[in-house]
Amino acid sequence: MMMSDYANPLTPEVPRSRRAVGGWLLYFCIALTFFGPFKMVQMFQTSEFWYMTMIYAILALTSLVAGVLTWSRSNAAFPWLRIHLLARLFYGFLQAYFTFQYFQHPNLGQSKAVQEAFYSTMNILAAIAIFFYFRISSRVDETFGRNI
Fold it and tell me: Is residue 3 in some structural domain?
C-alpha cells in the first residue's frame, strides 16, 4: 500500500538560534572596537612619516569597523576581520623590515632594533592567533553559524 506525501508532510527546518557574543569573542570585540583604535590614534598623533600615519589610520578604521560588526553579529564581520588582519600582518612585516634596517645601522641603536623585533613578532603572532581563533572557535561558530 502506498502512502501519499500528505501523511508525512515535510517539516520546515528551524534555523538554529545564534548564541550571544561572550567569552573570548567578547574580549576580541572589545579589543577591536576600543583598545586597537585608541592605540592606533595615539600612534597616529606621534607619527613622523606620512605613510606610517596612513597605516595607523587604516588599522584604527578597520579595527573599529571589524569590532562593531563582530559585536553586532553582522554577516559583514568576516570580510572586515580579514581586511583588518591582513593590514595588521602587513604592519607586522613592515616592522620587521624596520628592524632589519636598525640592525644594519648601528648608530640607530641596538635597543631600538630589539624593541622593534619584539613588537614585530608580537603583531604577526597576534594576527595569526586571532585568525585561527575565528577559524576554529566553537563560540564563533555558534554565534555566526560558521567560522571565518
Answer: no
Find out whether 88 and 37 touch, Cβ atoms under 8 Å.
Answer: no
How many structural domains are present in the chain? Answer: 1
CA dist 127 and 137 (Å) reads 15
Residue with cell 557574543: 21
Distance separating alpha carbons of residues 57 and 33, to the nearest angstrom: 14
Residue 85 near residue 132 (C-beta atoms within 8 A):
no
Look up residue 42 and give its three cell numbers: 595615539
Contact at 8 Å (CB) between 120 and 92? yes
Contacts of 45 by beta carbon, 8 Å cutoff, 6+ apart: none
Q: What percent of the chain has pLDDT over 70?
A: 86
pTM: 0.79
Query: How confident is the model over 59-115, as pLDDT tens digits?
Result: 999 999 999 999 999 989 999 999 999 999 999 999 898 888 877 876 766 777 788
Range of the domain at 80: 23-144
